[in-house]
Design a protein that fits this description.
This protein is an alpha/beta fold. Helices cover 44% and strands 15% of the residues. It contains eight helices and six strands, in the order E-H-H-E-H-E-H-E-H-H-E-E-H-H. Strands 3-4-2-1-5-6 form a six-stranded parallel sheet, sandwiched between helices. Strand 3, helix 4 and strand 4 form a beta-alpha-beta unit. Helix 2 runs parallel beside helix 3.
Length: 243
């Protein structure tokens, strides 16, 4: 009988391909983003069912402000609608929401919505869902260094780690990017130092439970050495070696 796959504690996803999904169907790009929200709901539920403790998703990058103004406006409206619709369900499913990113660039209405969603789910512990919104990996490192400098604290690896936007969770074990592109696009530059990467050709709205299971199975077969040799890993954790 085959062994059960090793489930990552923390999965991070670059949710790419919403616009192309819509274009292939002769729909406006925003329709793809709406479908992407549905895919995120499915993915979060599937992660919780499979024992994943943390899911972090890249929803809106600091570079996305350069997109057409009508698309950016539509994304902000979609966020507001998604919060109103999804937060009660997420709360019921035991999901705790965190929004990670530069809130100073967001409208007061959006900022209030994010804070309310975090407060409403603060008591949940089945799955932590980090939504990176108006986020960039370089911004995260710079803001962490700036906050330490402002407090007069030494800047070390440990202190930077504690000042990062994702200081409340461990680093991702697995980073998935959908949409067929093979780059990380300024996502979790610090935190993904030793993550395993999987690049999927599926567009994000098509990324379903079977695609998640495929990614987990592929991760389960990887040997994570963190700078050590295979022999060191084997002697310390004989059960961790892939079959």
């Amino acid at each position: 009988m085959s062994e059960s796959p090793v489930v990552p504690h923390h999965i991070a996803i670059v949710m790419d391909g919403n616009g192309r999904w819509a274009k292939r169907r002769f729909l406006p790009r925003l329709a793809g983003h709406k479908q992407g929200v549905d895919s995120l709901r499915r993915c979060a539920r599937a992660c919780a069912q499979r024992g994943v403790a943390v899911l972090t998703v890249f929803a809106f990058s600091s570079e996305n402000w350069n997109r057409p103004a009508d698309e950016v406006f539509g994304l902000m409206e979609l966020l507001a609608m998604a919060l109103a619709r999804e937060v009660p369900e997420l709360k019921k499913d035991g999901v705790r929401l965190y929004f990670v990113g530069d809130r100073a660039g967001l409208s007061p209405k959006v900022q209030a919505g994010l804070a309310q969603a975090e407060a409403a789910t603060a008591g949940n512990d089945r799955l932590i869902l980090n939504v990176c919104f108006n986020y960039g990996g370089r911004w995260d490192i710079a803001q962490a260094a700036a906050s330490l400098a402002a407090r007069g604290e030494p800047i070390t690896e440990a202190s930077l780690q504690g000042a990062m936007g994702l200081a409340h969770v461990s680093d991702p074990d697995l980073v998935i990017r959908t949409g067929g592109e093979m780059r990380i696009s300024n996502f979790l530059l610090w935190q993904a130092a030793y993550s395993e990467f999987i690049f999927s050709d599926r567009l994000w709205p098509d990324f379903d439970e079977s695609a998640l299971d495929e990614a987990i199975a592929a991760y389960s077969g990887r040997e994570r050495r963190f700078g050590k040799t295979s022999e060191q890993i084997l002697s310390a954790h004989p059960q961790s070696m892939p079959g």
